[in-house]
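Entry for the shared binder. Reason: the reviewer on the internal report wants the predicted structure included alongside the sequence.
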Amino acid sequence: MRSYLFVILFIFLLIGCNKKNSGFCVVKENGTTIMLERTPSVEDPLISLDNFIDSVKYIELELVPESILSRISDVFITDNYIIVIDQSQDIVLFFDKSGKYSHKISRKGKGPGEYTDISHAMIDTKAGEILIYNHDYRRVNYYNYDGTYLRAIDNFSNVAVIRDMINKPDGGFVCYTFDLMNGEEYPCGLWEVDSNGKFVKYYQKEEYKYPIIFPYSNFSLYNLPDNKIGFTNYRTSEIGYIDEDLHITQSFELPGKTYSDFKSVESLTEDESLNLFVVFNNIEKGFCRLTEIGTGHSSFWILYDKKGGVAQSSNCIANQFNNSSMLIGRVIPNNTTSVLTTAIYSDFISMIMGHPQEEARNMVKDIVKGRSVDEVSDMNPIIQLIYMKE
């Protein structure tokens, strides 16, 4: 089951960041390496996304007894649907583009066409299919958009442990894990699986076998334009893409030790582990890439302009674009290459509505639409769609 970093830009952080420092944290580029000379501080200016964003839209998901949501793990955007994966309930909910509830896939069980959990969900928009990977049974189930069960792949990738996976346009898959749970005979690294669930090849094999490591985010694989697949290696702090092969395009030189400094982390104390620098999250949409890096104590963001080749780093991200709140809530992965999605939950909205500063309350004014706190508390999460320039 994935572990998630809840990227919540709290109001006291956004409004309270000291902006008197005139310069960003020093970032140098040496070929494909971004080097940070120090960890960003709260005195650094905020990162602004204004130049990267085209527009912002909110989709209020209809709340009826059949559509109650708990924890959104993925959002898929198609021509007709906003498809929401709720891993805590192991369901797939379909809403139209205005947020009106349509139907759901809820097939929990052990029989044909059923699953015991949704470990990973994928979408094939060309075929109109939802793919659900069930870790307990190492099985991929296929359903069409109306919820009809189509077929399954059993014993997927020789029952390997998979931290993250994504389906390819040719029907195959890319899988990733950088820790070893079941022994030397199982894949560890980044590898390809064909449309029948059989191992094909390694893109990147981990030479050092680590004990179980749970990264803060398992969003290692994501879609890029031209049918490429983006890849983030949390252990080595490298970013790249996959077509026929793996291409590493950028790496980070961080102001402290990372997992790659150790052949094994078994001897690390808890305090040493908390001080290791880790890539928490990597979001690549349009020509903007946001990478969150930090330790068990704090984190910071690196904004990279893929067109201009310029990197900036700061503790915080500015939260206003044309008076529309942005990056509020939990960043949720999706299947697009140019839309950033977040889930805004009612408890967060209620908290902001009660904030003493008007600047904070204005952040959710367009979302609340004159409703009271009690009315907001009965809402489903709101999906924020941030359309990035391409």
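Summary line for the report: Residues 1-23, 321-325 have pLDDT under 50 and may be disordered.
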